[in-house]
Design goal:
This protein is about 45% helix and about 20% strand. With about 375 residues, it is of the alpha/beta class. It has 3 domains: about 220 residues, P-loop containing nucleotide triphosphate hydrolases (Rossmann fold); about 50 residues, no CATH class; about 90 residues, no CATH class. The protein has a 6-stranded mixed beta sheet, sandwiched between helices. The longest helix has about 30 residues. The protein is extended. Magnesium ion (MG) binds next to α1.
Length: about 375
């Protein structure tokens, strides 16, 4: 649906290309998330795909239309939502702007009026429909841009940082709109700085850095790259010497042994640490590891020190495992595992209502704070 091949864009007077031999494909019905730091080339790519600027070399096509030679066909096939607020008429209201751009798409009459009403409602701008565009806040301008991109119900959407500068509740709504587009079989290219957003929404994620596409893959495959943590420690010894350099090397070797450190390399005066993803060690991981150690999954609880055995005793998993072991290894009947079963029933009776209570408290709190379902 979107095919980009060796795309390069060099802006006059710039030391490096804004895009450097970028190639990728977005399959129909897929969401492609493009991540990258400021100046990586994301907006340049969106501007080329939306036919606003020309590439220096390479090719790109949308719905099999070449962005250079079949630009008007490409424009009819896409919905573009970008930051460019200058593309609206400042003295027209939000509603009038959409009416004007709808007219350009050949829409009109009751169908257009209903569609504008629906879209303003969708992006949360119904109350501001009669406000002049120049009086819109930054976030409201972005929302109007999103509404305009949805006007003609195109098949491909290009969204340049659609949730940037948007409040959390509205950002969540925008993510839902994007998911709904995918549900309707639409193809979306989306740029963002938000790794969580790219991971959650995208079928495929691409990472741009200094104009180069350095990685492309599904979010699970790119998790290592997305979550890479790098720490650079700079040493400034009063008198740099071979000895201070050796000390940095020695420190790097020692730090590399820590579980949190993936690699450590020493230069003079920098020490670069690549940290293992903290995302791998989640509270649930810690909880399950500790409970499996304490409840006898790995070895009998009798091997634990006495004070830890006391903790084992209050864990339901210990009793469940004990009942299972007695039944499987000694062929114990129901009467013999009554103490374990009684403990399990009692703890279940206590913990299930507590769990419900905690869930409802958390649910009400999140609902009041408006953060329900946010990520
Ligand atoms: N019109 C222009 N003239 C000259 N250089 C430009 C122009 N537009 C972009 N650039 C340069 O191209 C590079 C890529 O810019 P681009 O706007 O595509 O980055 P980006 O990834 O969208 O960044 P951000 O996350 O800040 O929006 C930057 O180095 C920028 O300075
Ligand atoms: Mg940009």
């Amino acid at each position: 649906m979107i095919v980009v091949h060796s795309l390069t864009r060099i802006f006059p007077g710039c030391a490096r290309p804004a895009l450097d031999e970028v190639s990728f494909t977005v399959e129909p019905g897929h969401i492609f998330g493009l991540l990258g730091p400021n100046g990586a080339g994301k907006t340049t790519l969106v501007r080329i795909l939306s036919t606003l600027i020309l590439p220096t070399s390479g090719t790109a096509s949308v719905c099999e239309y070449d962005v250079v030679h079949e630009d008007s066909k490409v424009r009819r096939a896409i919905g573009l939502a970008a930051g460019g607020e200058r593309s609206f008429y400042f003295r027209l209201t939000g509603y009038q702007n959409l009416e004007f751009f709808g007219g350009l798409l050949g829409l009109g009459g009751r169908k257009l009026r209903n569609s504008i009403k629906h879209l303003l409602d969708l992006v949360g701008l119904t109350d501001a429909r009669d406000l002049m565009f120049m009086k819109y806040s930054g976030g409201m301008k972005r929302k109007l841009s999103l509404a305009r991109s949805l006007l003609g119900d195109p098949v491909v959407y290009l969204f340049d940082e659609p949730t940037s500068g948007i409040d959390p509740g509205s950002a969540m709504r925008i993510r839902e709109i994007i998911k709904e587009l995918k549900g309707r079989g639409k193809t979306v290219l989306l740029t963002t700085h938000n790794m969580g957003e790219a991971e959650k929404l995208s079928d495929v994620v691409g990472i741009l850095k200094e104009g180069k596409l350095i990685a492309v893959g599904t979010p699970p495959n790119l998790r290592g790259v997305l979550r890479e943590r790098k720490m650079v420690i700079t040493f400034s010894p009063r008198t740099p010497s071979a000895q201070s350099g050796n000390r940095v090397c020695d420190l790097a070797r020692r730090l590399a042994r820590l579980p949190a450190v993936a690699s450590a390399s020493a230069g003079n005066p920098n020490l670069v640490l690549h940290l293992n993803s903290p995302g791998e060690i989640t509270p649930i991981w810690i909880f399950t590891t500790v409970t499996s150690l304490l409840s006898g999954v790995l070895f009998p609880v009798e091997m634990l020190p006495r004070y830890l055995q006391a903790i084992s005793f209050i864990l339901p998993t210990t009793h469940a495992l004990r009942a299972l072991r007695l039944t499987l290894t000694r062929g114990a009947n129901l009467a013999e595992i009554v103490p374990e079963l009684t403990f399990l029933v009692i703890t279940s009776c206590l913990t299930i209502p507590l769990g419900f209570l905690a869930f409802h408290l958390g649910f009400d709190k999140a609902r009041k704070a408006g953060s329900l379902g946010e990520y």
